[in-house]
Every structure is written in structure tokens, then in C-alpha cells.
Amino acid sequence: MNFSVGLARCPGTCGEWVQGAHGGVPFLVDCPIDRFAEIKVTLNPHGGQWDLPQHKTKVLQVLELLKEDLGLQTLGGQVEFLQQLPEGKGMASSTADISAAAAALLLALDQNPAPEQVMKLALRIEPSDSVMFPGITALEHVQRHNYRFLGSSIPALFLALDWGGSIDTKAFNARPGLGGHYRRFEGAIQRAYKLALEGIEQGDIEKLAISGTISAQCNLEINPKPQFKPFLDWVLQNGGLGVVTAHSGTLLAGVFPATESVERALRSHLQREVQQRFNPVYLDVFNSHPGGIITKNLKYRENAG
Predict the structure, then answer these.
(1) Rounded to an integer, what distance in angstroms lies between the CA atom of residue 96 and that of residue 104?
(2) DSSP 268
(3) Is the pLDDT of residue 301 over 80?
(4) Which of 55, 84, 212, 250 satisfies CB 3.0 to 4.6 Å to 162 for a cystine?
(5) 50-51 and 76-83: which strand pairing?
(6) In the chain, which ranges are continuous DSSP H helix?
(7) What is the pTM for the complete model shown?
């Protein structure tokens, strides 16, 4: 018997450049990086069930939503996670999983996975990131769900770390005090957003890093990171331009220019120094990424023997 196969991957994020509210409506501006969720879906038209890890409940949800939307109730198959993102750190792991799975299923059905379609599916499950879109996109991730393409991603390096724990995105966005927090910092977030727009338009990573730092500082009220100030000072003293944070996660990262000499320094002595000085449980170096769902043109039929 022949089985249709689709494979897709979606980048994660190094948190968000900016997150807050416009006129009381929450929004975010993602920071896509070169880390991915990659998923392969092998369909069985009459299987009825999905073979996937039990804890991947959000992936199961999006596959079932697509089955319902497309009127393919007998559809099932195998779902393989070829690459995964760390969960609960604010790296858009859930959105990337959902987006890659939806895209892989649509590819297996010989359909084009449009970013807007994938976004709408993800937002039916939880407040989501905008990583399914190419470039940098602002998204009203809780209500209205309007989005705006801001421009292409700017080359940058990120020295990312966290000190453990995890934050559930849905629970974070349902916190009773979140609306008041956004109102108190709306002016600062508007300044950060304006700087982000200028940085993206001008290809100026320094302006984008300053916008990220402003937004990250605002976020400390609702999501404290005790070593934020010492780490920011260290970043600025070592050639960094600012920081970016996971507003509903645990990740914090220094933003650095994307040059060969800086990358060598980050991957050698600066990474070791951060480990010794700040004692994180997670430490990595990322590159910025153009964003968007990536497919490997697996619109073929795989013979299962």
C-alpha cells in the first residue's frame, strides 16, 4: 500500500523583540532563530488514529482540527518529530510544533500550507507566536488576531541562557494581572515598538536590540528574572548591544552583531565565562533566521511494502 508523506519544519524564537499591548490589545513581535521543530507525517487514509508521543497534545489537536475542517474523518497516520525545541523556555516550541505538523499534513494531502491558514489553526489552540510567517511579523496573539509584516530578519547572534523552570503560555496569558501590567507599560512598549520598526526598516540591529531591552525590562514586573541586570551589564561590557527575552518564558539572551570574530568569541571564552559567572542550566548560541515554514518538497508517495 502507498502512503502519502509530508515533511515540514518551523523555526523557534529567542523570545520576542517586543511584547505588550496597543490600546489594550496584546501583541508580540517574534525573534526567529536557527532552531527548529521538524515533523514528518505519513498518512494512512483509513487509519483513523494518529501515532505520536502521548504528551504532544497540541499537535494532536491541530491534526484533528484539520481532519474536521477538510472532512477527512477516517484519516490517520504516523507523526515523527525529527527536530524538537526545548519546551517551556519561551522558544515558541508549541507554535513551531503545531505549524510544522499542520504544514506536513497539508503537504501530504498535496495542499499548499499558507502561513495565514497555519496561524489561524494555531490560534484556535492557544495564544501563539508568528513564526509561521517569513520575516518579522507583529501579531495580536490573544484577541483580534490581526498581523503585520514588519520586514526581513536582521543578521544577529544571541547568547541565550536560563536558570530552569518552565512557563505555560496559555496560563501566562490568562493571568488576572496581565492587563494591568500591559496598561502600566504601554507607553514604554510603544517606544520599543517604534524603535523596532526603525531598526527593521533600516537593517539596524542596535536599534532592534535597544527595543528588545526596553521590552524585556518592562516584562520583569510580571516575569522576574533575578539575574537580568548583572547579565545585561555583562553583555554591554562584552560587545553586546542589548538583550531579548521570552516574555512568557524563562529564556534571556544577549544580542550581538553577526560577525565572524564575535561568533568565535561567543562560542569560546564568552560562553565559558557566562557559564562560570551566571551558572545557567541552559546555554546556547543562536543565529537569527529569516522565519517561516520550510518544506523539503516531499510531495511524494512512499511505498510501505
Answers:
(1) 12
(2) I
(3) no
(4) 250
(5) parallel
(6) 57-70, 93-108, 115-123, 169-173, 178-184, 186-202, 205-219, 228-237, 260-265, 271-278
(7) 0.93
Residue with the bigger pLDDT between 3 and 16: it is 16
**Confidence tier at 48 by pLDDT (50, 70, 90):** confident
DSSP string, 215-256: HHHHHTTTS--TTHHHHHHHHHHTT--EEEE-TTSS-EEEEE
> How many residues does this entry show for the chain?
305
Range of the domain at 99: 2-303
Count of the separate structural domains present in the chain: 1
Average of per-residue pLDDT across 3-21: 95
Distance spanning both ends of the chain, measured CA to CA = 6
**CATH number of the domain to which 84 belongs:** 3.30.230.10
69-131-199-270 Cα dihedral, nearest 10 degrees: 170
Is pLDDT above 70 for 193?
yes
CA dihedral of residues 270, 272, 275, 281 (deg, nearest 10): 110
List all residues 6 or more positions away from 206 whose beta carbon is below 8 Å from its beta carbon. 199, 241, 242
Instruction: Enumerate the β-bridge partners of residue 301.
Output: 4
Name the one residue in this structure whose C-alpha cell is 499548499: 112
The rounded percent of the chain whose pLDDT value lies above 90 is 89
How many angstroms separate the CA atoms of 83 and 85, rounded?
7
pLDDT the model gives residue 297: 56
